[in-house]
Amino acid sequence: MLEDLLGVGEIYVDYEGGNPTGTHKDRIARAHVEKALEEGFSGITVGTCGNYGASIAYHAAIHGLRAVVFVPAGYTNARLPEMRSLGAEVVEVPGSYEDAVEASRHFALLTGFYDANPGSNREVDFKAYSDMAVGIASRVRPTAVFVPLGNGTTLSGLWKGFRGLGITPTMVGVTTAFGNEILRRFYGESEGDFAETVFNEPLVSERSFDAEEALEAIKESRGYVFGFPDDVALRYTELLRSTAGINPLPASALVLAGLVKFVRKFGITDGRFVLVVTGGVHVG
């Protein structure tokens, strides 16, 4: 149905909303908790805007591991009650998401907790997301893959996974127009607008911790980056609901907007296009 509507070849939706806490973050949270247990840590910590913290809290609770989650006090933080209900200790930090990450890293150094923050044990993240690529490749050999961009970790891990299989699809990052380092650097801008909202929260990142890897993946794959405002995210959320039968987070639904813009910009309509919808609306 989407193919007919957009006039393109084949569209495949890789939907991560069925994970325990509703997003792809469960993949890396599970991997980090398992690594923390293997290495004898008594606790795990992370700085987060929400989804990753909920995932860490969930998987830590399953394994009896103490979780301390740092969040930026000024953000919407809609998943705080869920984290607390799962037994995590939540610490609100003045400032930005990046400040919460730094506070968590400092806490890990002081207490000896496992540091699950982006950039701290990135090979664990990349391995978990490269497994997503294996799953996608078992269904289709993609021409282009559209991925939400926050820190750039997911796109980087997917590219590593595809490349390991000898597959080289065009990697297209899709993010908010109002605050993402990868978007800004892709277009050669030194500064950009920043506005965190309840819809773009998973994507805003003044400092994208895996920006170098993501930009390299985009360059190697001859990919691209697109940024969109919230109204576009909401419009494509409704379109995915009505055509694909899923209930995506607006930040994840932007991948469809990315596909539409990609087709219009480059005139590429024939091919196998994969939309990585990283999260769905979750009732915790």
Automatic annotation (TrEMBL):
Transmembrane segments: none annotated. Its cofactor is pyridoxal 5'-phosphate. Keywords: Lyase, Pyridoxal phosphate. InterPro entries: ACCD_DCysDesulf, Cys_Synth/Cystath_Beta-Synth, TrpB-like_PALP, TrpB-like_PALP_sf. GO terms for molecular function: carbon-sulfur lyase activity. Residues 3-279 form the Tryptophan synthase beta chain-like PALP domain. Belongs to the ACC deaminase/D-cysteine desulfhydrase family. This is PLP-dependent lyase/thiolase. It comes from Thermococcus celer Vu 13 = JCM 8558.
